Amino acid sequence: MQVSLDENSHMYNGSSKLIYWNNSPDTLREVFFHLYFNAFRPGSEMDVRSRTIIDPDTRIGDRIAKLSPEEMGRLTMGVFTQDGKPATMEHMGTVLKVTLAKPLLPNKSTTFNYTFNGQVPIQIRRSGRNNSEGVAYSMAQWYPKLAEYDLRGWHADPYVGREFFGVWGDFDVTLELDSAFTVASTGVLQNPSAIGHGYSLGSKPLKRPAGEKLKWHFKAEDVHDFAWVADKTYIHTTEQVPDGPLLHFFRKDDPDTKEVWDQLPGYMVRCFQYMNAHFGTYPWPQFSFAQGGDGGMEYPMLTLILGKRRLGGVVGTSVHESIHSWYYGALASNEGQYPWMDEGFTEYAGSCVMQELFPKPDEDPHASSITGYRSMVNSGKHEPASIHADHFKTNKAYSNTAYSFGEMFVYQLGAVVGEKNVEQGLVRYFETCKFKHPGPVDFERVMEKQSGLELDWYFNEWINTTRTLDMGIRSVMGVNGGIRIELERIGDQLMPVDLRLVLRDGRILDHHIPLSLSLGSKNDGSEHFEFSLLPVWQWTNPTYSLDLPVPFSELRAVSIDPLQRTADMDLLNNMVEFPEGAEGFAKP
Ligand SMILES: [Zn+2]
Fold first, then answer.
1. pTM above the 0.85 mark?
2. 346 C-alpha vs ligand 1 centroid, how far in Å?
3. Pairing mode, strands 482-489 and 153-154
């Protein structure tokens, strides 16, 4: 792809040669491209959605409706040929349909040659020019991007708001723009000695004067998108992760950002080291953190983040966005269909990394995911996690599902299969599914193999329904010199149960009640704590009763889910305490 940008008109022209392999068993007669910049035009699907949803993203609101012709975005395909023959095109807003000149058979390749031209919109969402901190060009979702074809056919989703799904490819991109701009990009710069700008230690200067044109040549292998950002006042530094990628940092030359950004490289080296050790090895040679965009957004080998924030904000955003490299970048699930598999898993790992960088020993780093999930349920806006990201009725339901539910879903799995199985299973998931676009069933299969348990019930009901969990203690009585405990399932959602007895002498006796549907239990040392295994809870039974040989007079308290790892909606019925002389407890 060869592209030149004119900073006076904010227009760009490109030409591209794309070699496309049909790895599907189907004969393809058409292909689809995304033309994302057409979302930034009055009347677009993104514009209308933002003006009609009840809780619009404040970054968009009605701003698209008010754009002047010079401020709008545009992306238009020019001439398109397939193996030298012209193909028919149909522009449909943010989607382009190309009817092929000749069908593309399975396991064959074809070559597309095409030109395109576009106008960079003022920054509305994610990409655009002149963002709120004055970064000149945030160039994300900017070129005609081939849509993904898989088992369910084409995924040419229009650009309404939510995120991305793409085709694996090797990119070779030349960007031509004024020599005063410093560029951060997906990929590895191929001509650093001709560029300077902090990419080369040779004779070329950090800053170049305006007025000439420079051609930046980048290559990126095994990525599903290509983004870049350019500004004339960037300060560019690098930091090497030992046994890992080279990190690049780009911030505008501004005393307001210096103190925080000077500390960022040290934290990010530790983030990459922790991720490599605990979640799988980062697979590309570099990663760039660039001030740009409108908050934080992930791209292959690049993130655009707002820079004028306090240390915790910049580090927290940088941790989250760089961890997307593992989930959005390398695993690359369909984010429209399964947004929780990207944001939720990224949040899960991010909570572990933040606990490593800013330890709070008394705090469970994942607890907020359960709080966020409960807040959505209690708001009445809860929808199944299986809904497409653009089709949630509210932005709240989307974001609580993608971020909070997703993290909770992984964390809560620890209560089912054991914490060590989750830790090891996440590495196994990364290693077996990277570069394969996994869906929920792929994660389920990895976790079933890791734990030896059946998990269909967990993946079916928690992902596809809005049923909620509420387990409760129904009664605790002294019987025949021991105690009898009766539990009940009040909510419709299923879970195995952790049961804790606290004795008057301070001893803690932990027990686990497996769910019959799992056909086994986390009984293999896969927890970080000891427990006694109790008979299974047959899932069709709404109650569960057991006798334990502990004198009632020695019992101080009984609780279920004592570590609070499940999304139980009512905690009040999870614990009973007995003052001296108490005779038992029965639910009124
Ligand atoms: Zn994210």
1. yes
2. 7
3. unpaired
